[in-house]
Each structure stands twice: as C-alpha cells, then as structure tokens.
Specification:
The complex is a heterodimer of chains A (1019) and B (500). Chain A is mostly beta strands and 1019 residues long. The longest helix of chain A is centred in the first third of the chain and has 16 residues, at 11-26. The two termini of chain A are 33 Å apart. Chain B has 500 residues and is mainly alpha-helical. Chain B has 20 helices and 11 strands. Chain B has helices at 2-29, 49-58, 62-65, 67-75, 90-96, 106-132, 137-161, 184-201, 216-229, 233-245, 287-291, 310-315, 321-326, 360-366, 381-395, 398-416, 430-444, 451-458, 461-464, 484-490; strands at residues 38-39, 80-83, 164-165, 181-182, 269-273, 276-277, 282-283, 305-308, 327-329, 351-353, 376-380. The longest helix of chain B is centred in the first third of the chain and has 28 residues, at 2-29. The chains are: A mainly beta (1019), B mainly alpha (500). The interface between A and B is large, with 124 and 117 residues. Strand 34 of chain A pairs antiparallel with strand 1 (38-39) of chain B, so a sheet runs across the interface.
Chain lengths: 1019, 500
C-alpha cells in the first residue's frame, strides 16, 4: 500500500527500498551469544523507582541488554572485572567497574538533571534539550496511556504552558488545539509530526502506542517547518523497541461516561406558566388540551456510555533488529443513545542495523474506525432536546409512534428521539488509514549521516446512509388517522473518499565536536504532496418500491428508482518542494546558537509566480551556571537564558480556496426556463494577483533554572507573535463575491511559566507537584481597510480588538414603567415598552443608537493554568490533575432565535412581569425584537476550574508476581472531569469553534465525566 | 568491512537516482491546476450565455422570494399580514405589520444582499462585454439581459431603501463596493438607461427552449412601472402602449388558472421567476412554501406566512370570481381540488394566499408538500393594462379617458366572463375613474406585491395604513432602514437613512 501511493516520481526507489528491507528482514537470524560471566543488577532513579529500558553494555563490545520493566537486567560479560556502560535517553550515562561483583545497583541521576539531558524531537531530527535555545515541552507517553480518551490530543489539556486544548465530548472527536493564542483568522491548528510525517491530525493513533509527545512553541524550533510552522507543532514519537528481551505489555481499561451538568430547563408546569404569559403578552393563547405530558427531553436522549480501551504490544530487540508491534481496540459509546465509536489500531516498527553505520527501518500505523453518528446528527439531537417543549409526550402509547412537538415549534424542532431512535443505525461510516514510512540511514566519513525517508499516508473513508420513512403521531391532524409522515420516501446514499499524502525527506547531517566547539549541521530537501478524491452517489425510492431498512440493501445499485440516481465527484491536490538547513552550535555548552532556514515552494501560488517564500529563525542561549563566577554558590544548580527570533509561515486557509490563484467557476446553479434546465457558471471568488502565504514574525525570551539540588525546575518565557499578511476572505459588502487578499495582521503575546518540584517527604513517600500558567493577549492590528469587520453573529473581528470578540449592547436593567422610559435616553433601535431591556447609552449622546454597541466579551481567556500533584508510597500512587481558564466570556446563542418558541431556561422564571419583578430578565415576548439584539444579556462567564483527572494506582510487588511469571502489574482507577466549577448555563464551558467565532454556545455537546478502571500488565 | 562499504556504495547510486528524479520533475511538481473545475480560460471567448444563466439562478435567492421578502413587499400593505401562528416570527410582525423597524432585521439584510449579488453579477458581464468590444448579436442580447437584471434589482432597492450605493462597474477588489449612497435620481438614471438598452435589444420572443427568458416586453413593462412610480404619466402611458402594441400578450380567460403550475409562463405572463423541482433536482424557490397553509400532516403545506387580510376579502365586489381565486378559506371544502381545508384553530389563520396553493396531485407525484416548483409571477399583462389605464386617466383628455375605460374594461371583462357581475365602469370623471382603477388594481393584483408601493406612490399610505391595522405608520416608514450589517461593514461610508 505504501509503495502504491508514493508519488509518481519516487515509485522506483520506494519499491527498491521496500524489497531490500523485506529481503533482509526475512533472513534475520535469531541471535545467540556465547556466555562467559553473568552479571545482573537493577537500575533505579534518584527517587528509588526502577527505570525500564536502560541500555546496559560491556565497555568495548557491541552487545548489550536493557533493563526490564522492574529495572532489572542480566548480561553476560567477558570477565568479572569488566566495565559496564549504563545509558538511557534523558539520563546521565555512567560507567561502572564491576570489580568482581556479579550483582550491582546503579542509580541514575534524578529528575532535574534528567530534564537537561533529555533528548527531544525537533523537526527533521532530534537534539539534546540543553543544546537548544527554544521552548519544547515533552509529555511522556505513560502520562497519557492510562487516561481514558480515544483521541490522544485531548489528554494534553492543562499539561503544557501555552497549549490550549478545548475538548469536545463526542467520541473520538478532535479537540480545538491552539498554541500560544489565535494567530490568524484562518486555520489555527498546529502541524502534527508523527515519527517524522507531517500531518493534519493524529486521529489514527492509539494513546497507548505513544512514547512521547513534544510541543514546539517558539520560532527557533518551528522555522524548520517553514510555511507550516506558524501555528506551532506537536511531534509524536510512537513506541519503538529498546534493547532488551522480549516484552509483552497489556493495557486495558473499562469505564463509564456520564453527563454531569445538564442544562436547567423548565418542566411542563413551569413551561405552561411562562408560555401562557408570553402569548398573553403577544396577544394570543394556546390550547394545551392535547399537550399534557411532562417530558425531560435531556433524560430521554442521554445514556451512560460505556468505554473500553485495550492495547497489547510486543517488543523485542537484538543487536541487529528492533521490533515493536502494538494492537489496539477502542470501543467508546457516546452519551447520546446509540452513539458509538469503534477504533482498531496497529502500530508496527522495525529497524534493521545492517552494520553499525547502516540502518533501514519501517514504521507503520494502521487504523480502522467505525464512526459514530455524524457530528450534525449528534449535535442536532442535543439541540432538539434543549429546545423541545416539555409538554409534548415522547410516544403515543396506542400507536407506539413518536409524538410530534406542538405546532409552535414543529417546523423547526423535531422530537429529539425521532432522530436518535428512528435515525439510529442508518449511518455506516468507516475510516481506514495507513500511515507508514521506510527509511535508510548511513553514517559516513566519521561526521556525516545521510538519511532518506519516504512517507505515505493513505486515508480511505467510506460511508453509507439510509433515510427511512418516518411516521410520527400528531394529535392535531383532523380525522381519525393521526399518523404524520414527516419523511415520506426512502433513499440511500453512498460515498467514498481517498486522502493520499506523500512526503519525501533527504537529510544530510554533519556533527563535529572540536576544542570546545560543538556543531551540528543539517541540510535537506523535502517534498510534500497531498490530494483528495471523493465520489458520492444517491438513489431515491421515487416511483419504485420502498428501500428496505436493511444495511445489505444500502448500495446505490438496483434499489430505488433508477431515474433518481445522482452522482458527484470532486478532487484537489497540492504540492510543495522545500529546501532546509539548520545549524546548532555551542561553545563548551555555555554559549548556544541555533539557526534554521527553509525555502518553501507551493503549488497554490505557482500560477501567480509567488510560489517561493523563505522562512528562518535564529536563537541564542547562555548557560550562566557554567560560568566561573557562578561556581561556589549552591542555590542555583542550573541557569539558562535564551531568546529566539524568526519568521514562520501559515498555509492553512479555508478549504474553499484550495486554488487561491485560480478564479474557478462553479456550476452549482442552473438557469431555469419553464421546464428546461441550462447550466450556468459563476466565479466563486475574486482572486488577488499578489496573494501569498501569511507570515508570523515572532520572538521569545526566557530562562530555565534548577534549584534546591535540582529538585525544583522552573521555566519562564515571554512570547510575542505578529501574523502579517493574514489571508482575509472579504465577504464584501452588498452581496459581492467574496475576495481573498493578504489584508490582515494579528498579534499575540504573553508569558508562560512552568515549574515542577520533586521530593521525598519520608523514606517511602515521593511527592511531585507541577504547574503551569499562561497569559494570552490577542489583538487584531489590521484587517483590510479601515472599518472592515468579520461578523459572525455576535462574534466580530475588527482591527484594534481581540479576535472574535463579542459585540453588542450593554444592559442597564429593565424598563420598569413608562415613566422610566420617558426619563431614559430615547431608544432609536426600536420602540421600547416596560419589560424590555434598557440598553446603556455608551456614547452619552442621550439616545440609544447602534453607536451604543461596544465590546461585551472576549472568547480568549486572560490566562490558562494547569497543575498536578502526585504521591507515591511503596506500590501505591495517587495523582490529581487540574486545569482551568480565566477571564473569557461565552455568548449564549442557542435560544436567541424567534422563529419557533423553545423551552425556557429556568432563569426565565424570574422574568419581568410587572414593575419591580426583575431588573435583568426581560418580558416574555418574541415580538420585542429589541430584547433579541446581541447584548451582554447573553454573555456568560467562561472561566472555569476543573479536576481533570484523579487517579489511584497500585503496582504489585515483585515477590507476588514472579511466581506468576509476570514482570509487572499495575491496576488503577481514574476519574476524568470529576468536577467542573463553571459559571455558564450550557453543558460545558469548553466551547471551541473557528478562529473568528469561538466560545459561542449553540447548544454545545456535553463533555462528560468518565470513570474508569484499568490494568497494565507486562510479561 | 569490505561488505559494509559495498552496501554503502550501492546506496549512492540510489540516492543520486532519486535526486535526479526529483530535480527532473521539479519544474512541474508545483504546477497544479484545479481538478474537475472550469477556470476562466476554459470558457470560449464571446460566450456569455452560461454567465447570464447564473444571473437567472440568482433570482431564486431568498431575498427575491422568501417570507421576509414578503415582509417588505406584502406585510407592510393593507392586504396582507405576517400570518402563521401568533408567536411564530412575532418580531417580523412587529417589524413589517406594526412598523417598528429593526435595523438588524435579517430580512432586510437578505433582501439587500440578494439584490446586490444580482447587480454585481450583471456588472461583471456588462463590463467584460464592453471591455472586449463585442458586438455580435448574441452577446449584445446577453448584455441586454444583464442590464435588465441590474435595473430590476435597483428598482426593488430604490423603492425599499430610497438612496442606495450605485455600483455599476465590475468588482475586482471587494472593497471597491464600499461606496456612499447615490441619490434616487442617480439610481433612476441608471435604471432608465439600462431598461432602454434592454428594450431595444432583447428579442420579442424566444424559442421553446427558453420560452420564459427575458424579452423586449419585460423591459418595456418595467420601464412603465418605473415611470409610473415617478408619476411620469406620459412616459408610463407610452411604454404601456408599446407593450400592448407588441401584440404578444393576452389575458387568459380563467383568471385563476394562470397561478397554477399548469398556468406558468402563459400568454399573460411577462416576467416570472422560474422554479423547478423534482425529488432529485431542486432548483426551486421558497415563494409558495413560506405562504403555504400552516397545518399538520397533509395540511402542512408550508409556514403559513403572508395571509390575506379581512380588508382584502371585503374589497371584492359581489360575485367577483377573483375572490375565490385569491383567497383560500380555512374550514371549507375548496372547490378547486376538492380539498377540505381544516378550520381555525386547527390551522392558525382564516385565509391563505390561494395564488400559491398547489395541486395535491403535484404534491403526491413530487413527494413534497411545499410547492417549491411554483413560479413567482413578477409582471403580468393585466398589470400593464391597469397601468396604462391609470396613466391615461391621469393625463386626462377625451381620448385618454376612452382608452383608460377600454383597458379597464378588458380586465373586468376577463374576470366577469359570461356571468352577470362586475358591471363595466363608464364614468368619465377623472376622480371617480381614478378610484375605480385603484380598486381594480387592488383586487386584480392582490397578493402580488403591488399594493404597498401603490399606496405609497398614490400618497395615500399615510391615510390608509394607520386605519388598517398599522396605527404607528408614518411617512418615514416608506423607507426601510439600511441593514445595520452594511452600515457596520462600510466603516462609516454608508450612512443610515434619516429617522432611524
């Protein structure tokens, strides 16, 4: 599959390399060693816990082993006086002279030092964190593997300063991820790099297969990604085998999801009271005689969802070959009845060392998902449940048909169960994904390394859906037959989409250390190609037979009326070719310089001749603690000052503008003359001949320090980013075609702080506390011409204001009487009556006009924070993660409409219905348009604090396990989203969205609490 | 070691080969054209048909047909109310029936946007044809169609808002649209010039394939309407006489038949917005759907907006068949298709607009109750005859009075048929005849979006509307506020209408 989808230019090579790899792999002999002296031992950290996967080698030989999960190793050495080299990623290497001992205990240096020695993934390579001038945060796989989520990204919430994750509660849904603020009015997603492959999402990964996640935030780390670096990068390294014996790991958890904070809505009696009053205010009445139920629609559609995550992995390594295979199965029910996601994952990697200097490898991530209800259907069910009148029964008992809703909302709101129950199992969506790479790497001429890697990502999605005949019970139908056919005819739709991507990297690295100078150079060429091809078709029942409600029939073949068959297809592609270079230099690990450069060519602007664009960054660092004058003091163990500056690019633009340089024509609309249809062509948008990518000019300055004997680690950064030439779609005034131009400028700045502290409180008690804190200040500096705004309901984007701020009137209470109206500024926005919202005269001109609208909220928080505390006592571990945001607002939009009458929030029980009854909730009347203006009446506080995870685990002692041939066993209990302290009325304060409209509550799907129990077993 | 270096060296050619492949395809690697899409260079020069067809499709937009379009055109009059249930869209009733204008009303925004979208599409065609200097007959007809479209859109805008920005050039930078308002005279100068060219160039008829495409008659009729609006009686009379003189149009014998699906594009139709709907191809409009009976089950024919008022029902003379052709009564068996319309309060309104009432057989065969296939009639021949009569009577003089009476009688005679009703009007008194013509216009053109602007141009809106259920109506309500969204987007360039 990989070879097949590799871009045309490299097919030959890909085949060639694949053949070599498989050939050599299949001849792999099982290795055996001559035994001389056996030495065994344990490797532990400074905190006394064992460390797995540490490489143990006899000095001067090539052989070696690795510690197992309990930190133990056993190695045959040539003599009892041999010397062992002990090394592991992120720890200080040690040499131990055996001096006749056959059992040794090795202590590797503690947490603080570990952070400094840590090897982190940077673009197109890796480096030691101490050599870098940027800000890269690493999250270990084990921190997320035992937390329940089908999407690994959602587990990063609250863990990294500067990384904002807004989760959705839908099974497997991708969260809204932003790094260091909202850069642009276009796409704000970071780029994901999975084992070197640039990607748009990591939905295809199983959290249990992740070794580590690196979050890259600053210009010196990101410039190497060029036109894709502007929004930051998240690099994922999947698990690979470490040297050592065969290891089998089993990770399994099961749990339950619950909706915790339902929206408080009126019950039937309260609804009748309010609705009767509303109609009286509007001059009408409603006959409730057919509508006497008391239905809680939220309870009707929600369920406790069951989740089950399983992963089994097998790793094995010899001197020549390293092998990892992980198999995962995730079954996650949603909180809406019949909502279910199933996900199967396979992660495979193998590296063959032909010689010390020549290596080949293959990685492969495969995924198959059975998708839950489409997003629209799930959100539609929630939307209906909060809007449906409680006076309607769920079912008509006699006919067993779902009951329709009252006439005042029937046209806009459906009985939520019609969608949930009649629409259940009418959608079959499958996603298949294979993401793989093959690479070859050769070390030559001492200092050089050349690496070729070919990546292919092949996504294939299929779906089939069925529209059943839906009959509901409607008591208002005249006559005896009360059946109301709301969907009158069956139909079937089928679609297939293909998403191929290929990436080729050719990287040459040069590393040399001489006389205190340490230099690492990288040069390379990379190409990237991605495309889409989709076809879909549908057929309707028409004049034919009903299409059966049986999935076997849901193909657009010979069911339905052939004359109703329709098909469509679409495709797009883009490509880029890039040249990159990087230098990492330091002198005596004291003075650091990082520089990188990338020249990107993009197919999108080829026609305009603007295809080439250069990006780059420079970073400097000074490790003050290495200076002589620092010696002799014992307070600071480590201090590094750092700063970087660079220019990055952003190529995420609206999917509609895949060919921004071409004025494509659509034939979506046809002219009609009588019964003749003639195709028409329209320009989709007006292209600008000077279009180019957005660039982000950014810098950061910060420091890292360790103190209290390396037990406290602290980092602080100031970041500042200005996105220039923001691609702005001008949905022009007066119905003009949209235009696209480089017309905006957006600035983000703030501080990030993070700290962690490790200590041993008592002999057996380890204690760790960590926290992070980020401030965000966002401002749109410029947007097209003066006065131009992007308006999205209440959310606006205007020069001089934060992106997507909320704009409207400010409530100054409720007009209590005509006397008060007479005394107040004259309302020019509409006639006001007692009970209406009294808007504030912001500009003080004595009139309420549209000029009195102002900023009423900002969806971007002032700051976000996260923290965790953990204890370990003997085998018991207890951890708690918390996170929160502060200072943002939510705009409540779901009940702003007036076309239908919705159920009321219980807040409406306190409405104004006579002088002195309320000074906030206006009169009940949809006639009073003045109360439905965008105003701070609909603004809610978006700040919240959440206990994200509470986890209790127990690791069994070895004595108990060794009898059962088990290497390690841990069981754990986890509660996720245990409690959320929020002030808004919706299900969740976490409301994502697009870059220019987020934090708008349109009836957001709840984020449930998840309680799970799990087991992690190694044998 | 020897083996190792062999492997090493065997890798080198591979690397070189790959680099060669890369560099050889580099030139084309970045050259990617849109897949499966036309780009402008794919359209043969000189063919503007496909672009002009797109302007016809723009006429199907909500702002030309939907419930809020009807708010502007109909609810404001004394012949129709918002309708539906009391609470459904109560704010729209407040806006358009009770004249408490809300600048942020979505309806005026949609109306504005839809109309300017048509103007901008038309401008692009006109400008392209002009800049290439194309003079072949087919292209000149395309240009004339575009000019009609632009004039039609401005005609709606200038009546609704008064002064509006005059955009009569191709937009290359969307920001170019941001213009201050032009005077009504400037807008009318553009409308007159556009229609003059359209009337001169458009064909009298089209062959069957395009039977409802814009014609000379449509342009002349719109010229007449625009002249009448400005009380330019001589001009209006002249244009009406030209339309009559084309000898192309005639009154259908059964008044009601022309509003049915089967009566679309008949001999009386001068211009109608075309709708087409099948279960697999929806090129329909919402015009009938938003006005359909708001009931349950098989009587869920739509949203039930825009319903006739009692005043309209009472306006008909005894026995006038146009009443039952215009009003669909709740709680009665309707004679047309024999359907039993549910009574109030099972449905919320006593009267519905029967001109959009669909044939149950069509609903069955199209598997849709909402009438999206029903055309929207814009100009009918009866309208032209009544305009001619009005203009002639206002001009005065014996010949004109005789002509006026004759045209009036044509309309009444058709309604009368062979029955002994609707006696011929014979008065030659200008005032009495004026009243007779105004009455005739009210009933003949009922629910066809004429009444409000008729009242305005006759100047009697301020006396009629306050006693017809809209006590707050004042002169200022003739003009709608400019949508707040447009004011906001313009950054101060566009100024709100006075009094708002």
């Amino acid at each position: 599959m990989i070879a097949k989808t590799t871009a045309r230019s490299s097919k030959g090579f890909a085949y060639w390399l694949l053949h070599i790899i498989f050939l050599i792999t299949s001849f792999l002999p099982l290795m055996s060693f001559a035994q001389a002296v056996i030495v065994s031992g344990t490797v532990i950290g400074a905190d006394g816990t064992s460390i797995a996967g540490v490489t143990v080698q006899e000095k001067g030989t090539k052989g070696g082993t690795a510690t197992d999960a309990s930190g133990k190793f056993s190695l045959s050495v040539s003599s009892a006086n041999a010397t062992l080299n002990i090394s592991s990623l992120g720890y200080k290497s040690q040499s131990i002279a055996l001096q006749g001992r056959s059992d040794v205990t090795v202590v590797l240096e503690g947490e603080g030092a570990k952070q400094l020695e840590q090897v982190v993934v940077i673009g197109y390579g890796s480096a030691q964190k101490k050599d870098l001038t940027g800000s890269i945060v690493t999250i270990k796989g084990k921190e997320i593997a035992d937390k329940p989520s089908a999407n690994p990204l959602s587990l990063l919430q609250g863990k990294v300063a500067g990384l904002s994750i807004v989760n959705s509660g839908r099974p497997g849904a991708e969260p809204d991820v932003r790094i260091r603020g909202t850069n642009t009015i276009n796409g704000v997603k970071p780029v994901y790099i999975v084992d070197g492959i640039l990607n748009d999402n990591i939905n295809f990964l199983n959290p249990a297969d992740i070794e580590s996640i690196e979050v890259l935030k600053d210009p010196s780390s990101l410039a190497i990604f060029g036109v894709r670096g502007a929004n930051g990068a998240i690099a994922i390294t999947t698990k690979k085998a470490k040297a050592g014996q065969l290891l089998v790991n089993l990770n399994s958890s099961v749990g339950i999801k619950k909706v915790q904070d339902k929206i408080k809505l009126t019950n039937a009696a309260q609804f009748k009271e309010l609705y009767t009053e509303q109609l009286a205010n509007q001059g009408g009445t409603f006959d409730y005689s057919l509508w006497n139920a008391n239905t809680n629609w939220q309870d009707e559609i929600f369920q406790d969802g069951v989740i089950n995550y399983n992963n089994i992995s097998i790793t094995g390594a010899t001197e020549k070959n390293r092998f990892y295979m992980g198999l995962g199965y995730i079954n996650e029910e949603g909180i809406i009845k019949h909502e279910q996601l199933k996900k199967y994952t396979l992660n495979f990697s193998d590296e063959l060392r032909v010689t010390k200097g020549l290596r080949f490898g293959i990685t492969m991530n495969a995924y198959r998902a059975e998708l839950p209800l489409p997003q629209g259907q799930a959100e539609g069910a929630v939307g209906s449940a909060i809007r449906a009148a409680p006076i309607a029964p769920v079912l008509d008992p006699a006919t067993a048909l779902y009951h329709t809703l009252p006439s005042f909302q029937r046209a806009q709101v459906f009985n939520p169960l019609v969608g949930v129950e009649d629409g259940k199992n009418t959608f079959i969506g499958r996603e298949y994904r294979a993401v793989g790479s093959i690479y070859g790497e050769v070390d030559f001429l001492k200092n050089f390394n050349f690496r070729v890697q070919l990546f292919a990502d092949y996504g294939f999605n299929t779906s089939r859906s069925y529209q059943p005949i839906i009959v509901v019970y409607n008591p208002e139908i005249v006559g005896n037959d009360k059946r109301d056919t709301s969907s009158r005819s069956t139909s079937v739709a089928q679609s297939q989409d293909i998403y191929p991507k290929t990436q080729m990297d050719y990287l040459l690295t040069f590393k040399k250390n001489f006389g205190g100078h340490n230099l690492s150079l990288l040069g390379g060429v990379t190409t990237y190609y991605r495309a889409f091809e989709g076809t879909s078709s549908s057929v309707q029942q028409g004049t034919s037979q009903i299409i059966p409600n049986n999935p076997d029939k849901w193909y657009v073949d010979a069911v339905g009326d052939p004359s109703t068959k329709r098909g469509s297809g679409s495709s797009w592609e883009d490509a880029s070719l890039s040249f990159l270079a990087r230098a990492l230099y330091n002198f005596e690990n004291k003075y650091l310089i990082n520089a990188s450069f990338r020249r990107d060519g993009s197919s999108q602007f080829y026609r305009l001749g603007n295809q080439w664009k250069n990006f780059g960054a420079v970073g400097v660092g000074w490790v003050v603690s290495k200076e002589n004058f620092f010696e002799g003091q014992h307070f600071l163990d480590y201090l590094k000052l750092k700063g970087s500056w660079g220019i990055l690019g952003n190529k995420n633009i609206d999917d509609r503008y895949r060919y921004p340089a071409y004025p494509t024509l659509t034939n979506a609309n046809s002219g009609v003359f009588g019964n003749n249809i003639v195709p028409a062509l329209e320009r989709e948008y007006i292209p600008d001949p000077n279009l180019n990518w957005e660039t982000v000019h950014s810098y950061e300055a910060g420091l890292e320090l360790n103190t209290f004997k390396n037990s406290l680690h602290f980092e602080a950064n100031y970041y500042n980013k200005v996105t220039k030439d923001v691609l702005t779609l001008i949905a022009g005034p007066s119905g003009t075609l949209p235009g696209l131009g480089n017309l905006g400028e957006v600035a983000n700045s703030g501080f990030e702080f993070s700290a962690s502290y490790n200590a041993k409180i008592a002999r057996d008690i380890d204690f760790n506390v960590s926290g992070n804190f980020t401030t965000i200040k966002n401002n749109v500096n410029k947007l097209n011409k003066t006065g131009f705004e992007i308006i999205n309901g209440a959310a606006r984007t205007t020069a001089g204001f934060p992106i997507g701020y909320f704009y409207g009137y400010v409530s100054d209470g409720i007009y209590q009487s005509n006397t008060e109206i007479a005394k107040s500024p004259v309302s020019k926005i509409g006639i006001v009556q007692p009970g209406d919202i009294k808007y504030k005269d912001i500009n003080g001109d004595g009139e309420i006009t549209t000029d009195d609208r102002t900023v009423i909220g900002n969806p971007t928080p002032d700051f976000t924070y996260g923290g965790s505390v953990s204890f370990a006592y003997k085998g018991i571990d207890l951890g708690i993660d918390m996170q929160g945001v502060y200072g943002n607002e939510i705009y409540r939009a779901w009940n702003q409409g007036t076309f239908a009458d919705f159920n009321y929030q219980t807040e409406r029980l306190d409405r104004w219905n006579g002088p002195g009854t309320s000074n906030w909730e206006p009169i009940l009347s949809t006639k009073r348009a003045v109360n439905y203006q965008n105003s701070n009446y609909r603004i809610e506080d978006g700040s919240f604090f959440r206990i994200r995870n509470l986890q209790l685990g127990y690791t069994f002692g070895e004595n108990m396990l060794s009898k059962a041939k088990i290497k390690s066993l841990r069981i754990y209990l986890n509660a996720q989203n245990l409690a959320t302290f929020a002030n808004n009325t919706g299900y969740t304060p976490e409301i994502g969205g697009s870059s220019t409209a987020f934090g708008v509550d349109n009836g957001t799907y709840p984020v449930p609490a998840v309680y799970s129990v799990g087991i992690n077993l190694n044998f | 070691m020897k083996k190792v270096s062999m492997i090493k060296w065997s890798l080198l050619p591979v690397i070189l080969f790959t680099l060669m492949v890369i560099s050889s395809c580099k030139k084309n690697f970045l050259d990617r054209q849109p897949l499966g899409r036309y780009i402008e260079t794919d359209i043969p020069a000189g063919s503007y048909d496909s672009k002009i067809f797109a302007t016809y499709s723009l006429l199907r937009a909500g702002g030309f047909n939907n419930h809020l379009y009807l708010g502007i055109m109909e609810f404001r009059s004394d012949e129709a109310d918002k309708g539906s249930s009391v609470s459904d869209g109560a704010d729209q009733a407040q806006m358009f029936d009770e004249f408490q204008y809300d600048k942020s009303n979505g309806g005026i925004q949609e109306f504005w946007t839809s109309h300017y979208a048509l103007i901008i599409a038309a401008n692009s065609i006109i400008s392209d044809i002009d800049s290439l200097g194309l003079t072949d007959p087919n292209t000149l007809v395309n240009k004339a169609e575009a000019k009609f479209m632009r004039a039609y859109a401005y005609w709606d805008l200038v009546r609704a808002f008064g002064q509006v920005p005059k955009i009569d050039f191709k937009i290359n930078d969307a920001a170019d649209v941001n213009k201050p308002k032009a005077t009504e005279d400037q807008i009318f100068t553009l409308i007159d010039a556009d229609l003059q060219e359209a009337a001169a160039t458009l064909p009298l008829t089209w062959d069957a394939q395009y039977n409802s495409r814009l014609t000379k008659g449509a342009a002349m009729s719109l010229q007449a309407k625009a002249a009448l609006w400005r009380s330019n009686w001589a001009g209006a009379l002249g244009f009406c006489k030209q339309v009559i003189g084309l000898n192309r149009y005639s009154l259908v014998s059964d008044y009601g038949s022309q509003f049915r699906n089967t009566g679309e594009n008949g001999p009386e139709s001068i211009f109608e917005i075309q709708a087409y709907y099948t279960p697999t191809l929806d090129l329909g409009i919402q015009y009938a759907q938003v006005q359909g009976v708001r009931g349950a089950g098989q009587w869920d024919l739509g949203w039930g907006w825009d319903v006739p008022t009692q005043k309209l029902v009472d306006e008909y003379e005894t026995g006038d068949p146009r009443r039952v052709a215009t009003i669909l009564y709740s709680g009665q068996v309707d004679p047309l298709y024999g359907e039993n319309v549910p009574p109030v309060p099972t449905v919320p309104q006593p009267y519905w607009n029967k001109k959009v009432y669909t044939n149950p057989a069509d609903r069955q065969s199209l598997n849709n109750r909402f009438g999206n296939w029903m055309d929207h009639r814009i100009i009918r021949y009866a309208d032209v005859l009544l305009m001619a009569a009005e203009a002639a009577n206002e001009m005065g003089g014996a010949q004109n009075t005789t002509d006026a009476l004759a045209w009036l009688e044509m309309v009444r005679a058709r309604a009368r048929g062979t029955a002994n009703i609707l006696p011929a009007v014979t008065t030659t008194d200008q005032t009495l005849l004026r009243n007779a013509i105004r009455h005739e216009r009210f009933v003949e053109m009922a629910m066809e979006e004429q009444r409000f602007y008729d009242l305005v141009r006759w100047g009697i809106d301020v006396t009629v509307l306050p006693v017809s259920g809209s006590p707050l109506y004042q002169v200022k309500h003739r003009l709608l506020p400019i949508p707040q969204g447009e004011i906001d987007k313009s950054g101060g360039v566009l100024k709100q209408n006075p009094n708002y």
